[in-house]
Write a structure and sequence with these properties.
The chain is of the alpha/beta class. It folds into 2 domains: about 1-115 and about 295-324, Medium-chain alcohol dehydrogenases, catalytic domain (Quinone Oxidoreductase, Chain A, domain 1), CATH 3.90.180; about 130-265, 3-Layer(aba) Sandwich (Rossmann fold). About 30% of the residues lie in helices and about 25% in strands. It has 9 helices and 15 strands. Strands 3, 4, 5, 6, 7, 14 and 15 form a 7-stranded mixed sheet that branches. A 6-stranded parallel sheet has the order 10-9-8-11-12-13, sandwiched between helices. The chain has a two-stranded antiparallel sheet with strand order 1-2. Helix 6 (about 225-230) links the parallel strand 11 (about 215-220) and strand 12. Helix 2 (about 120-140) crosses helix 3, helix 2 packs across helix 8 and helix 5 packs parallel to helix 6 (about 225-230). The longest helix is centred in the middle third of the chain and has 21 residues, at about 120-140. It is globular and about 60 Å long. The chain starts with a strand and ends with a strand.
Amino acid sequence: MKAASFSEAGGPEVIQFCELPVPELSAGQVLIRVHAASVNPIDTYVRRGIVAFELPKPFVPGCDAAGVVEAVGEGVADWKVGDRVWCTNQGLLGRQGTTAELIAVDAQWCFRLPDQVDFETAAANALVGVTAHLGLFRYGGLKAGETVFVVGGTGGVGSMVVQMAKAVGATVITCAGSDEKVQRASDLGADHVFNYNNQSIGEAVKQFAPNGIQLHWETRRMPNFDEAIDLLAPRGRMVVMAGRDSRPEFPVGPFYVKECSLVGFVMFKASPEEMKVCADEMNEWMAAGKLKANIAARFSMEQMSDAHQLQECDGVGGKIVITR
């Protein structure tokens, strides 16, 4: 089978388009013929060795895929040949990834793909959607009627946060770095969008939410905690999901006097059961057209090196999808 893989950590150039054996199915696995996959920032961290996992060689990168079940392993009862599925959390913790024609995936990481949802949408929404759902609801406790501010509402995760928060009846404030992205965030459903190059975050958010926001979702590598806590309403919550090497100052006094809370998380540590909660609701929203893919670029598997190079550029503005 055709696949994109690498054997040594390094830059995008280490990825090779090659021929690999069809993976053998173990008990509890399904074999999926991949119709679409996607690229995420963590794929580039794994490739460079920044996030160090024990990797098989050669290693196939990629967390997300959508396709059709080609075979089922011993003990698999919930899936049959021909089922449409999507998956995420592959290519991590030593598991092989998804940028191959055929992939063997533990059945517990697979989720049913509604007939109304195309493969590209499912692959593009997989990791970023699960991340957004976990952060908003499991960790952020978002409720209808609350106000959310997400930094970067057109990024991979940010675009999911905007749409999911709107789907449950929250008010959404976000920002972007160009007029084009401001319009895109508005099209995704954000109630208030501003260009952070023209207006400061603090001033703009206070204009739209003078009494404070209930949930602040931070996507930047270096959070501004002074600004964020100033913007939070009493007992407001803040979610962080980036900045492995950042060590910003933290205003302890204002934080505890306001009775705020702060949570950080990584989606790949969620259990299959936790992810299924996310996937079930994502499927409902995707089938209803409430959760759309924010696709910035498409590449073939032969172009995986180029796809990784683009992912490492600033301002991709959405998801990179790998198509057949």
